[in-house]
Design goal:
Layout: E1 3-7, E2 10-14, E3 22-28, E4 31-36, E5 41-47, E6 55-56, E7 59-61, E8 66-72, E9 75-80, E10 85-89, E11 94-98, E12 115-117, E13 120-126, E14 129-134, E15 139-145, E16 150-157, E17 164-171, E18 175-182, H1 216-223, H2 227-231, H3 235-247, H4 256-278, H5 291-304, H6 309-313, E19 325-327, H7 340-343, H8 358-376, E20 379-384, E21 403-404, E22 413-419, E23 422-427, E24 432-436, E25 451-456, E26 465-470, E27 475-479, E28 484-487, E29 498-502, E30 520-523, E31 526-530, H9 537-567, H10 574-602, H11 612-615, H12 617-636, H13 639-646, H14 651-654, H15 668-677, H16 679-698, H17 701-734, H18 737-740, E32 749-752, E33 759-760, E34 769-774, E35 777-782, E36 785-790, E37 795-796, H19 801-805, E38 808-812, E39 817-821, H20 825-843, E40 854-860, E41 871-877, E42 880-888, E43 894-900, E44 903-911, E45 922-926
Parallel strand pairs: 2-6, 12-19
Antiparallel strand pairs: 1-2, 1-31, 3-4, 4-5, 5-6, 5-7, 8-9, 9-10, 10-11, 13-14, 14-15, 15-16, 17-18, 18-20, 20-21, 22-23, 23-24, 24-25, 26-27, 27-28, 28-29, 30-31, 32-34, 33-39, 34-35, 35-36, 37-38, 38-39, 40-41, 41-42, 42-43, 43-44, 44-45
Length: 927
């Protein structure tokens, strides 16, 4: 048996065999209704046999298939596969259809357009009212809910949540809760395209076509359109076209020519309407110049179907009845996210064709980051009675409008469950929050006081949960180890407040099919569990550890990162802080997407290869490298210490288990900031071993070992780069003001002559020379005067027998030559290697064996002579201008041409500015 069923804590014996997982459960008193994942409805009455276990005999309702059900009082509400809502009695006799009719819109000329019946994806029914989510994400309601402007037995659209997409709806005895997200328009959306054009078939202005368009030759051209255009039409376009044609009323029964003119006129008008409509469809960003052609193709297809143009013409002219109800075809509405599962953005649907260029990786990163952002940035809104704190807003003040539950918004709320007067929420990181009425200890077990704000439920601080469901007087929780807990007392006189109803004893070899939607379902006092086996225990452990990491970085994001963004906007190192916070947020979003993919895998929704850490290994490494670069830049310039001075660190961070720092410790603020920002680095060190275990357990060694190698490489790189950043930070702190001017976030100290001695050949007895090798420049401090040499314009002369014996290194620059020496051969080798590698990196040629003699570089001359203050950009050969280049003086002179051995030589062009004017170009050749 795939399911287990309880009445409170008493298990019910299922006599009938149900080999499917259950999607939804509802009840009318003791009559249970079970909807399976294949849309079959089973129902039966729970029989209470004296002295024996309760039992349930189920029978299949074969007439219709449904995709959602709910019950209230003596009625069952269902949604069929076409999106229509029906009301049944307890014996499954159809009572009525519930219509969701969109309000009649008015065209710009004042004529009423057509009403459409909306298609429904999900519903929530309760004594307080009814909520419906349409297939385009709109929220509708009926009943008495004045807070959202609903006071009608007929469903109406709730305009308060316009421009938001609804993902989860719940109705209790006297309150309602919805989970929504804001709809973000594309950046290229034109403001003038946001207003919807309304086409009214009876409006003479809407159907008016200029006379020059009403030409029979054009109509014949439309009639002779190629069939290839018709075949490429979408059913959505065809359905929309037919609706427009059928809504027009009777046509005159004149001759065939008149009929053709009429249908042509209406076709052109409707085509013009469709042109305007298609132009604002942003999910596919239709090219504007093709919009008119697309609309034409739609009506060409309609006109020529079955050669019934004359017959169709009878339905095309204006009608006085504009309020007829049409059932909108399923494909007419724009595709939007409508259900929670669609909102989770199944990662398996991204294209498998990979562009491994930097741009391709960045584009895929952006897609994954949007997924993670949408997962985390959900809002939880509530309205209704506040007597027992069921609104979760922290007080008992009556509200006239919906209120947002701030504690549950933007933290990755996956699910909200409501029944009676209490509620529970499950977050992406596996935490459960409960609030509301607590007379049976269904919210907290330590007291019976009602909870007016969401309270974290934690018997064991290490425990994570997979699901939560609220009944009338109880709460059921399914832990990550598949242990089912019943929270609450059966009767007020009971002492037991927590009961384990089910403990998973399955082994890795005892694998069953996995539920596709949810594993825990509650209706009133009835509780149902879809029993599943785990394909691999290590997956659950990895998921749990990733959820704990997500929990930690969410705390850092809310208590530190957001504060850094606010407080460091005008500081000197604002760019460093911006890159740090941006990359941290990106890492947070990717972790959220990875956690969701792990949960999807454990629920059987995706294969193991679609787990984000596998499928998007390059993107994960890319995002991690971006954060590593940002944190190392911040470390190198001492930004973490600066953050601790600018901010008041939240006390929440001191309570986190990963820091081990108390407020009384000296320097505790800097330590807590560093520990918080180093969390991703600590997690990074665990990835190679975790990924290796995953690969072994999933038995995919041959394909995924390469991912393990990538994580090993990035860990080794990080350890090396972190040491460089720490060393650079120490150097900047002790270098003095002369050198501080060269401090930038991207520079690292490679070597300096105070710790690694190297001297200048033939230097004066009383002179002092300090050589500092950074990642892009060589600084030579002569006394108190620094000289900067760009490494791109530094050449190293190869060693000869003479200078090799003297441990010399000869450096050539455009205007000088430095001969350096060390006391020991080993020191020379270290300096030579450091200089060579630094120049290679500066030139972007890390993999070359030898330094190139010929290069392209930029240099500004500073010594007296013909080139003083001139900036040269062009080709060089061993420290001298050689080849094509351009010289530009500060007085405006510009020479562009050929150079040879540091001299102007060959074909060139000189610009000589005059007072207020420029002389013409002079072309000359120097022999």
């Amino acid at each position: 048996m795939n399911v287990a069923l309880w009445n409170k804590t008493d298990q019910i014996n299922l006599i009938s065999e149900v080999n499917e997982n259950i999607l939804k459960i509802a009840n009318i008193e003791n009559h249970l209704y079970l909807l399976t994942v294949t849309h079959h409805l089973y129902h039966g009455i729970v029989e209470d046999i004296k002295g024996q276990q309760q039992q349930l005999q189920l029978q299949l309702y074969q007439d219709v298939q449904f995709k959602d059900i709910d019950s209230c009082q003596k009625y069952l509400y269902v949604i069929d596969l076409e999106g229509s809502v029906f009301k049944y009695n307890s014996d499954l006799q159809l009572l009525q259809e519930i219509l969701l009719l969109n309000e009649s819109k008015v065209c710009s000329h004042g004529h009423c357009a057509v009403k459409f019946k909306m298609k429904v994806e999900s519903l929530a029914i309760g004594p307080f009212g009814n909520l419906f989510v349409t297939n385009n994400g709109q929220l509708w309601g009926s009943g008495n809910m004045p807070q959202v402007g609903i006071n009608s037995t007929n469903p109406k659209r709730i305009t308060f949540f316009d421009n938001r997409c609804t993902h989860c709806i719940n109705v209790g005895s006297d309150f309602a809760i919805v989970v929504i997200s804001k709809q973000v328009r594309s950046e290229d959306t034109d403001s003038d395209e946001c207003d919807e054009d309304v086409f009214a078939p009876s409006c003479p202005h809407c159907t008016f076509v200029p006379s020059n368009m009403n030409d029979l030759s054009k109509m014949e051209h439309l009639d002779s359109s190629s069939t290839s255009s018709k075949n490429s039409l979408s059913t959505a376009s065809l359905g929309c076209s037919r609706s427009l044609l059928e809504q027009s009323s009777e046509s005159i029964d004149g001759n065939e020519k008149v009929a053709k003119n009429i249908i042509f006129r209406n076709t052109e008008a409707a085509r013009d309407f469709l042109t305007r409509q298609f132009s604002w469809i942003k999910p596919t960003r239709i090219i504007k110049e093709n919009v008119t052609n697309m609309a034409s193709f739609v009506f060409e297809g309609v006109k020529t179907v079955g050669d019934k143009v004359v017959t169709l013409s009878r339905h095309v002219s204006g009608s006085s009845d504009n309020c007829d109800v049409l059932e909108m075809t399923e494909d007419v509405s724009l595709p939007r996210i409508t259900s929670k599962d669609e909102f989770m953005w199944s990662l398996s649907q991204v294209t498998s064709e990979r562009d491994n260029s930097d741009q391709g990786i960045q584009e895929r990163c952006n897609t994954i980051l949007r997924i993670g952002m949408n997962l985390l940035n959900c809002e939880v809104w509530t309205w209704g009675n506040i007597a027992h704190g069921q609104l979760g807003i922290g007080d008992g003040i009556k509200r006239e409008r919906p209120m947002i539950i701030t504690k549950l918004s933007n933290v990755g709320t996956r699910k909200v469950s409501v029944q009676g007067s209490h509620a529970g929420a499950l977050t992406l990181d596996g935490r459960i929050y409960l609030w509301g009425r607590n007379d049976y200890n269904q919210v907290t077990i330590d007291s019976s006081v009602d909870q007016s704000s969401p309270k974290l439920f934690a018997i064991n601080s290490e425990e994570r949960f997979k699901d939560v469901a609220c009944g009338l007087f109880q709460t059921a929780m399914l832990s990550s180890q598949l242990t089912l807990k019943y929270i609450g007392r059966q009767y007020k006189t009971d002492q037991s407040k927590v009961t384990n109803l089910y403990i998973n004893n399955m082994t890795d070899n005892d694998v069953q099919s996995v539920n596709l939607k949810g594993q825990l379902l509650v209706s009133s006092q009835y509780l149902l569990l879809n029993k599943v086996g785990e394909s691999n225990n290590f997956i659950e452990e990895f998921t749990k550890s990733e959820q704990e990491f997500l929990d930690d970085i969410l705390h850092v994001q809310s208590n530190l990162i957001k504060t850094i963004i606010k407080k460091t906007g005008g500081s000197v190192d604002s760019l460093v802080y911006e890159q740090l916070t941006e990359s941290y947020t990106e890492l947070l979003y990717f972790t959220a997407a990875n956690v969701q993919s792990l949960l999807d895998y454990s629920n059987g929704q995706i294969p193991d290869i679609d787990i984000a850490i596998f499928k998007y290994a390059e993107e994960h490494v890319y995002i991690y490298k971006k954060y590593l670069g940002a944190i190392n830049d911040a470390l190198s310039v001492g930004a973490l210490a600066q953050i601790s001075k600018l901010l008041d660190v939240s006390s929440n961070l001191y309570r986190m288990k990963w820091n081990g720092v108390s407020k009384k410790d000296k320097g505790s603020i800097e330590e807590i900031v560093k520990s918080a920002l180093m969390l991703p680095l600590q997690r990074l060190k665990t990835y190679p071993s975790l990924v290796f275990k995953l690969i072994v357990n999933l038995q995919r060694e041959s394909r995924l070992l390469d991912i393990h190698g990538k994580w090993n490489t990035i860990v080794e790189e990080q350890e090396h780069k972190q040491c460089e950043a720490e060393k650079t930070k120490e150097f900047w702190c002790n270098s003095g003001r002369i050198i501080e001017q060269f401090r930038t976030s991207g520079r690292r100290l490679i070597r300096e002559s105070h710790k690694h001695p190297i001297q200048l050949q033939n230097a004066g007895r009383f002179s002092s020379h300090w050589f500092i090798l950074l990642t892009d420049i060589l600084v030579h401090v002569n006394g108190s005067t620094p000289h900067i040499h760009d490494l791109k314009s530094v050449w190293i002369d190869p060693p000869t027998e003479d200078n090799y014996s003297l441990n010399q290194i000869c450096l050539k620059m455009p205007e000088e030559t430095l001969v350096l020496y060390t006391l020991e051969a080993e020191q020379k080798a270290e300096w030579l290697q450091a200089l060579t590698n630094a120049i290679k990196v500066a030139l972007g040629l890390s993999n070359t064996v030898q330094l190139p003699i010929i290069r392209t570089a930029e240099y500004t001359f500073y010594k007296a002579g013909f080139y003083k203050d001139a900036k040269y950009n062009g080709r060089w050969s061993n420290g001298k201008m050689h080849g094509s280049g351009q010289l530009e003086w500060t007085d405006g002179r510009v020479y562009k041409g050929q150079f040879n051995n540091n001299q102007i030589h060959g074909f060139g062009r000189m610009e000589l500015p005059s007072v207020g004017t420029f002389l013409s170009f002079i072309v000359f050749i120097i022999k």
